[in-house]
Amino acid sequence: MRGSDPASARRKKARRAHEPGLKRANFGEGPGLPTLLLLPQFLILLFFFFIPSLRALTQSVLLADPFGTTVQFVWFDNFKALFASDDYRQSMWVTFQFTVGQNLLTLLVALVLAFATDRIIRGRPIYRTIILLPYAIAPAIAGILWAFLFNPAVGPLAQILHALGIAWDPNLNPNHALILVTLAASWKHICYDYIFLVVGLLAVPVSLMEAAAVDGAGPIRRFVSIGLPMLGPTVFFLAVMNFIYGFFETFAIIDAVTKGGPAGATNILVYKVFVDGFVNLDLGSSAAQSVLLMSFALLCTLLQFRYFDRKVNYGV
Q1: Cα(228)–Cα(102) distance, rounded to whole angstroms?
Q2: Which of 10, 232, 271, 298 is the most buried (most CB within 10 A)?
């Protein structure tokens, strides 16, 4: 009868377990252990993402005084006020410049370093370790480091620029301030891109590189014609992650280097959310800005998948 032969069922299960390419995690019977293992991650998402997101959505349609004693439902007035605000439009433009700049700079430098690593034979582990060191530095510390290096009074790199005739002063010049935070944010994130690109280059078939070398292609030509196209999926993934990094994870660098100045030149959206909410105590506007920031990040990600993913070659 069906199901009456437990020995046969065990034999079938054993045969499936020994089939090549098949791996099965054994969590026992029932959902108890898998649920217990997933519970910590679920609680983190619940308390640090879902509940704050729901709270931000609720607060974005309310108008409250700084102490929360009076609350008024205003529908979408907070959003209308933001789009009518010159400061918010300027912050959007600054965020666009900053995010695109750090994305391109990070990818370009990481590609050059990954190519150089692929060419190094001796001391490769030391070279990789040095490049990965910035990833272990906190963003605020990285910001302070770059603020010191380019300090117009005592910074060594600023003194070199002054000797070259460049009147470097990020405290007064908006363009200098934006360049400084872009460099700091890119330097902090280059090692992240570098890890993925190095691993991606290891997956490029050696036979293709050797065949190109036999045909007379130099190292740069082989990297551009063979290695870079095969890194397409990796580069696309990193471009998406770099945009998310620029939108959400550069607050500490901005706060440590420029605090959004001078004159709002580095007041990106994520920093403006903090200033309006925790300094100016405009909770409704700050919540509306956080909702819009999440929407902008989602829109940019979808556009990247819509218009650039089709140009990526996933074949080997």
Answers
A1: 20
A2: 271
Max distance between CA atoms of the chain, in angstroms, equals 92
Residue 262, preceding peptide bond in cis (omega within 30° of 0)? yes
What pLDDT tens digit does each residue of the chain (316 aa) get?
444 565 665 665 555 555 555 455 566 666 778 888 889 999 999 998 889 889 888 988 888 877 767 888 888 999 999 999 999 999 999 999 999 999 999 999 999 998 888 777 677 788 878 888 888 899 999 999 999 999 999 999 999 999 999 999 999 999 999 999 999 999 999 999 999 998 888 888 888 888 888 888 888 888 888 888 888 888 988 998 999 999 999 999 999 999 998 989 999 999 999 999 989 888 899 999 999 998 888 888 888 777 776 666 655 5
- CATH 1.10.3720.10 domain range(s) in the chain: 77-311
Checking 292-295 for CB contacts under 8 A at 24+ apart, the result is: 292/79, 292/82, 293/247, 293/248, 293/269, 294/53
Instruction: Work out whether strand 62-64 and strand 71-73 pair parallel, antiparallel, or are unpaired.
Output: antiparallel
Q: What phi and psi values does residue 73 have, to the nearest 5 degrees?
A: -80, 120
> For residues 249 and 140, what is the distance between their CA atoms, to the nearest angstrom?
11
178 neighbors 97 (Cβ within 8 angstroms): yes
CB atoms under 10 Å from CB of 119, counted, come to 10
- Left (φ > 0), alpha (ψ -120 to 50) or beta: where does 105 sit? alpha
What kind of fold does domain 77-311 have according to CATH? Answer: MetI-like fold (1.10.3720)
- 3-class state of residue 313 by DSSP: coil
Helices 156-163 and 139-149: crossing angle in degrees, nearest 10, is 40
Name the token pair of 126. 């030391």
Give the C-alpha separation, 37 to 275, whole Å: 38
DSSP H or E run through 170: none
Q: What is the rounded (10 degree) CA torsion for 267, 249, 125, 200?
A: -110
The reply to whether the predicted model has a pTM over 0.85 is: no
Which residues sit opposite 73 in a β-bridge?
62
